[in-house]
Amino acid sequence: VEDIVQEVYDAYRTNHHSSQYVLQREKHFHYLKRGLRQLTEAYECLDASRPWLCYWILHSLELLDEPIPESVASDVCQFLRRCQSPQGGFGGGPGQHPHLAPTYAAVNALCIIGTEEAFGIIDRKKLLEYLHSLKQPDGSFLMHVGGEVDVRSAYCAASVASLTNILTPTLFAGTAEWIARCQNWEGGIGGVPGMEAHGGYTFCGVAALVILKQEHLLNLRSLLHWVTGRQMRFEGGFQGRCNKLVDGCYSFWQAGLLPLLHRALHARGDPALSMAHWMFDQLALQEYILLCCQCPAGGLLDKPGKSRDFYHTCYCLSGLAIAQHFGSGDLHNEVVLGIPENCLQATHPVYNIAPEKVARAVMHFLQYPVPSLDPASAAE
């Protein structure tokens, strides 16, 4: 992999000036636009992940600042309505059993659309009942009824509950403590207590604790040491675990941790924090994404030699946005490699949708009280 990346970097530096780093916006837009309406047979294996496809594409479009036509947004809403289960939550497709992963994706997609139609699709009472049905005595959550437990489920549950104003102390009793037990000797977080630290699980664990306002339960310094060590010295991108290869998707799963850690350490009064840059090499990550992860025909990918897909398009662009934008408000600082047009819209590091979409969803659902559950549902 290093040899292939070396070839890419050498070829670029031989033929271009550094200002020529270019995000192929138009090509990515057309790739994403086609995917919203029609997919090739290669995507048949993702039949149980169709809300994810909606989310990956819609979020990529919002990062590129491409408006979603009203007719398309309404069609997505009605499709996701068909994915909603009578039991609560969303399945991977119409008529499929509910699962926390597509539930997270569906709620995020609806919040990106952000219309009354989109918000009105979410059955909050049934969603709350469904989350209670997955809650385990130790504070963890099942991914689906009869399914596995890991830290992804805690994050998915906390994310959808906080966005839709159904987060209650009872629902998440013991969850923060369970997540903290997933931090291991490396400093990162594994899927369950005692497992190897992994970038995706670490993001999910930290983001869930931020939502629950319990990130202080972690050893933050150990976590910072682990995640900064995952940025590859040569490639500039991130790996997911120790001794693994670089992968474009970890541009978000790992780099997205740094704003969360920055916030937690700042709240603790850490005097050594920069107020202009995240604690990773933002330019090196942008270089890896722009030179090694763009498909010439549009879309982004894992690494040179791999195929493009909507998953990597979403998370490469999300990581690029994290690397370009530091802070917010008066402390906002842009660090953009290449031409100014490379700058993406910012993304919320906890939810990975636009910050204004998070605010709109939260304000909308705060108008409504938390649904009351019958004792049988709450006790499940």
| Average pLDDT figure | 96
Main sheet record: 2 strands, antiparallel
Strand content: under 5%
Count, helices: 17
Structural category? mainly alpha
- The tally of strands reads 2
Poorly predicted segments: none
Q: Tell me the strand order in the biggest sheet.
A: 1-2
Q: What is the CA-CA span between the terminal residues? A: 49 Å
Structural features, described:
This protein is mostly helical and 380 residues long. The chain has helices at 2-15, 25-37, 50-63, 70-83, 100-113, 116-121, 124-134, 151-163, 175-181, 199-211, 220-228, 250-253, 257-267, 282-292, 310-324, 355-365, 375-379, and strands at residues 325-326, 333-334. The longest helix is centred in the last third of the chain and has 15 residues, at 310-324. The radius of gyration is 20 Å and the shape is globular.
Give a quick summary of the entry.
49% of the residues lie in helices and 1% in strands. It has 380 residues and is mainly α. It catalyses: L-cysteinyl-[protein] + (2E,6E)-farnesyl diphosphate = S-(2E,6E)-farnesyl-L-cysteinyl-[protein] + diphosphate.
Offer a few descriptive terms:
single chain, 380 residues, mainly alpha, two-stranded antiparallel ribbon, 17 helices, 2 strands, 1% strand, Protein farnesyltransferase subunit beta, zinc, transferase, prenyltransferase, Terpenoid_cyclase/PrenylTrfase
